[in-house]
Amino acid sequence: MKKIIVAAIAALTALSADALQSAVQADTISVEPAPSSYEKPTFRLPEWFPAVNGTIRANYELDTENGASRFRVRNARVALAGTVVPEFEYKAEIDLCDEGKIKMLDAYVRYAPVSLPITTTVGQMRVPFTIDAHRGPHQQYFANRSFLAKYGGNVRDVGLAAQYTVKGNVPLTLQAGVFNGSGLTNQKDYWTRTFNFSLKATARIAKVLTLEASCQKSRPEDISIMMWDAGVAYDDGFWHVEAEYLRKNYVRGAFDGVNLFNSFISRKFHLNHKLTSIAALGRYDFMDEHSDGIKNADGALTATQPQRHRVTVGSTLTFGAARRVELRLNYEKYFYHKDAVIPVSDHDKLVMEVMCRF
């Protein structure tokens, strides 16, 4: 028995050595030669190995009108991104808790040639449209998104998109894309004769001022919706001031046009501690009576959200930089018409949120 055990150990040792030598020769593992005084060998990951990042958001909300409250996990996102071969990039992102559901968000391949100021992306992605709706959960300034971002431009779809950057004193980024209109989950048997599309232009002036204009055609069911957006943002690292307007038109007057507006201001105070910054924020946003574009049993569009105004004030404490934790405290005050039917989650509320970006 001892001879058998010794022979097995010797065989495993030989196989491991052969496997390591093959990996080194194939350039999948790099082992630096040991200096005269022995140190542990350094291993270098292959170029195709993905970078991993993610976002976790958890919060507590108190409805200040009726005293009810709840805990929620808003997001649990994990993304893999990298380069398989030079100039070809990939990204796959999934949210394990998007409003309580598992959703595939991004799944695309991007061609980004070094010698040209253009990129081409194919797969599932966020449709290029607006300023605020294009922010991920870790880039948001407030715990809850603006009405414009939530009901206007928050669209992911499958398609083909291109981006062209004009360099100069005023850098200009032009984006365009065509998309199925099938959304995130309805792809298996989806065919169409009318693709959705989006166009977006973004200019950056003196590195602090951003101007944006975009349009998007969507088709939630069989009624097309055309949206137009314009926005301006100023950011000098301390102050961030932003205003954005979106107009939503339903074809053939299927529903009254919707106006959405978002504006906010943030003042950040930088600190040289584990607590890296404190920000004070204020926001005003507005939305007309709105339809999600899905017809009722009678074949007509009806209002799915009432007209509303909202004022939000809050503060954000940030720990860390690229990898960071943010503690967000917001109070939201809503204003409705006296006859409005108010959704259960859209009353005045206090929100305390923890956002972790890794």
Describe the structure.
Helices cover 8% and strands 52% of the residues. It contains two helices and 18 strands. It is mainly beta.
Q: Quickly give the structural class.
A: mainly beta
User: What is the top-level CATH class of the largest domain?
Assistant: Mainly Beta
What global shape is seen? globular
Relevant CATH superfamily of the largest domain: Porin
Strand order of the largest sheet: 3-4-5-6-7-8-9-10-11-12-13-14-15-16-17-18
What's the structural domain tally?
2
Q: What's the main sheet like?
A: 16 strands, antiparallel, barrel
**Residue runs with pLDDT of under 50 for 5 or more positions:** 4-36
Sequence of secondary-structure elements:
HEEEEEEEHEEEEEEEEEEE
Layout of secondary structure:
Blueprint (H helix, E strand, L loop, with lengths): L1 H24 L4 E2 L11 E2 L6 E13 L5 E17 L2 E11 L2 E11 L6 E9 L20 H6 L3 E11 L5 E8 L16 E10 L3 E10 L6 E11 L3 E12 L7 E13 L4 E13 L20 E13 L3 E12 L13 E9 L1
Antiparallel strand pairs: 1-2, 3-4, 3-18, 4-5, 5-6, 6-7, 7-8, 8-9, 9-10, 10-11, 11-12, 12-13, 13-14, 14-15, 15-16, 16-17, 17-18
